[in-house]
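User: I've been trying to design a sequence by hand for this structure and keep getting stuck. Would you show me what you'd pick, starting by listing the structure so we're on the same page?

Assistant: Good idea, let's start from the same input. This is the structure you sent:
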């Protein structure tokens, strides 16, 4: 933990003991609610929150650059986005006795003002058609059935990794042969038809897994987390380097190559179509997606 982070935690602990500040956390940030009183002096004294010069310079010129060189440019940008979100949250939570925010400026904004964000190209990696069989065979040899089925589901449905990881049995309708994702990136409920292969895979898991999650794990959330060591075993056995996100890219690439209609593909991926007037007149019917989903599954499953 950085020196700044330790100072913040130390200050909040002292403030809590003295009853000097109020922190109201939302359910999205934490499951806990701490009832403390509002005020400003101790935080100002310790952190000098109304003097941002040093902190701005540190974020812009040192920490962001350091992360970029040591961990990668994409990682550095992600870290700053998380920090930006934390400052935005704090600005709405910490107030003085007059109701004014103690956080008067988000220091991460300086990266935008000085155009210091790294330009990171979108990943374009995916599993090629002629590699699918080798990859699939290597995956089948894994002893970890949960990981194996998790990766297969993503490849055959195009789900995002967290959407698949957090999937619960209550989200699957075996009678209608559909699955529904509630917590999506665009905040819109996403229902997909199950191809015959995926239906059988999930039905088999249902008989063998009693946990609430389809893919249970040992993490704090109770669901599977990205197991890099197991993925590395598949890479070693197949010679194919891939990430979980690459499986979604593979699904998209295969669908496009099979000439799946653009509107159907966007529905399968749960992409918004806000600027498309025609799309606004199309009624979303999950059954209209069943044939395209089956075509993609058949191709992935039977590709040489």
């Amino acid at each position: 933990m950085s020196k700044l982070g330790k100072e913040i935690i130390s200050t909040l602990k002292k403030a809590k003991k003295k009853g000097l500040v109020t922190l109201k956390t939302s359910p999205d940030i934490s499951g806990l609610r701490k009832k403390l009183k509002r005020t400003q002096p101790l935080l100002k004294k310790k952190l000098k929150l109304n003097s941002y010069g040093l902190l701005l310079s540190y974020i812009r010129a040192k920490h962001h650059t350091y992360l970029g060189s040591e961990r990668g440019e994409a990682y550095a940008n992600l870290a700053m986005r998380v920090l930006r979100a934390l400052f935005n949250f704090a600005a709405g939570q910490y107030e003085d006795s007059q109701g004014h925010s103690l956080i008067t400026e988000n220091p991460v904004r300086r990266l935008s003002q000085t155009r210091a964000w790294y330009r990171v190209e979108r990943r374009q990696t995916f599993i090629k058609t002629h590699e699918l069989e080798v990859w699939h065979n290597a995956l089948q040899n894994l002893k970890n059935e949960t990981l194996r089925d998790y990766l297969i589901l993503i490849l055959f449905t195009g789900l995002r990794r967290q959407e698949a990881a957090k999937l619960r049995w209550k989200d699957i309708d075996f009678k209608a042969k559909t699955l529904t994702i509630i917590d999506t990136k665009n905040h819109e409920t996403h229902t997909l038809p199950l191809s015959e292969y995926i239906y059988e895979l999930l039905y088999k898991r249902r008989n063998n897994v009693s946990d609430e999650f389809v893919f249970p794990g040992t993490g704090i959330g109770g669901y599977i987390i990205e197991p890099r060591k197991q993925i590395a075993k598949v890479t070693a056995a197949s010679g194919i380097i891939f990430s979980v996100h690459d499986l979604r890219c593979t699904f998209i690439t295969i669908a496009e190559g099979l000439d799946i209609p653009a509107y159907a593909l966007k529905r399968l991926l749960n992409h918004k179509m806000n600027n498309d007037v025609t799309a606004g007149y199309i009624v979303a019917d999950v059954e209209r997606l069943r044939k395209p989903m089956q075509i993609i599954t058949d191709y992935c499953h039977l590709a040489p």
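That's my pick for every position. To get oriented when you compare it with your attempt: The mean pLDDT is 79. The CA atoms of residues 74 and 120 lie 6 Å apart.
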